[in-house]
Amino acid sequence: MSTRVAAQSGFHATEEYRLFQIEDAHYIALLLMLVSNPTSLPITRALLGRQRLEIDYPADQIAPVAVIASSRPNELTQSPLNGLVYNWLGLDDVFRNDFLQNVILITHDEKAPSGIQESLRTSRNTEWSQAISPDKIGRDISPGPFVPWKGELCKAFRLYDDPQQAFIVATKPHTAPGSTFDRRMSRLEHSKLGSLITREEPTESADYQAAFNPRGDGYQSAWSSSGRSGAALASYEYLDFTLATDTTGSSRRPALANGVFQIRLSQAALSLDGIVPSWKPFDAPAMFTKDIVALEKWVGAWISAEQEERQSKISIIYPADFLPVSNQAQMDFLNAFEADMESTHGVKKTVLSIKDLWKRKTPPPPPPEADSDDID
Questions:
Q1: Are the CB atoms for 250 and 224 separated by under 8 Å?
Q2: Domain Scytalone dehydratase-like protein Arp1 N-terminal spans what residues (predicted)?
Q3: Residue 47, exposed/middle/buried by CB under 10 A (0-12, 13-18, 19+)?
């Protein structure tokens, strides 16, 4: 266990960590208290201290707890509860049945239907449960796996090794503030940095190891400067997607090498704030995912937060220098696609000839270079 103490704007922030293990899964318990008035204890201590949290466990051991919350009265019924637990067990790599040993129900009905508690006891072997009104909490406690420790409710996170050397250092996972997309995900860590437009081979990197591509014999290149993001996604089952950048192929090549799906977004889709510039006319954000359906879902969530702010007028350019072509079947397909685009976006195509445009707007020739004899 390690403790870090810092002061910020009159608030005392204390972070404490505790490592624990459930069977073959390793966890870290994170405690975060922000106390503006040191004389008032956090609500979790008042509700979940040893006097109220009547779980019989030694002080040096961990008691897993599942927090289940409902936002509206009478919403916490048996059917939604079963669906929630089923989704957690199927989709969440952190959650497991052990956390259902003890359950806290955050509900407007503090008495909690006896059928719910009985269902938890019979179907999930729940030994203890307690209902708490959200009005008494005073702050948000997100549903999920927790452990009580020192009278506080600590968020549980999974710990994983990084045998592929894809990340910079181990880190404390956290939910990122900001857009809707940020609030839906848990950010893990930054992948290792790479040289611009340069592939770094694992077998050639001794002082600073490059990421290992998991395919083949395990010693293949992750390829290009965003290869760490591609290697991490291909290697670790618990990752849903990874983010990267692309200038001249820095994420497209790693997708090919590591066997994952990738998309390079257009520059107008997202703000480029925070992206270290390489070549601004070509710099763009990118994303890796493991299947094409998930790619559409995650990209949609990523750009939805900025769509209203960054909507740009759509233009359909018809390149007269290259169209039409002699293949009529190809032209029929292109004409149908063009008509569909015009109908969908309510715009008409613009016929553009680069050759004619160059003739009309040819830049003036540069001024003649001064002769060395004319220089005083």
A1: yes
A2: 59-113
A3: middle
pTM for the model stands at: 0.62
- What is the identity of the amino acid at 130? Q
Sorted by where each begins, the domain ranges of the chain are 42-159, 174-307, 316-360
Count of alpha carbons within 13 Å of 282, Cβ hemisphere only? 9
Cα–Cα distance, 207 to 210 (Å, whole number):
9
How many whole angstroms separate alpha carbon 359 and alpha carbon 348?
25
- Which residue stretches of the chain are H helix? 43-48, 78-91, 114-124, 134-137, 180-183, 227-235, 252-258, 292-307, 328-345, 354-360
SS3 32: strand
Please name the residues in contact with 83: beta carbons below 8 A apart, sequence gap of 6 or more: none
DSSP 114-158: HHHHHHHHHHH---EEEEE-HHHH-S---SEEEEEETTEEEEEEE
In this structure, the number of other CB atoms found within 10 A of the CB of residue 31 comes to 19
Mean pLDDT check: name the lowest of 48-52, 100-104, 205-209, 349-353: 48-52
What value does the CA radius of gyration of the chain take, rounded to a whole number of Å?
Answer: 28
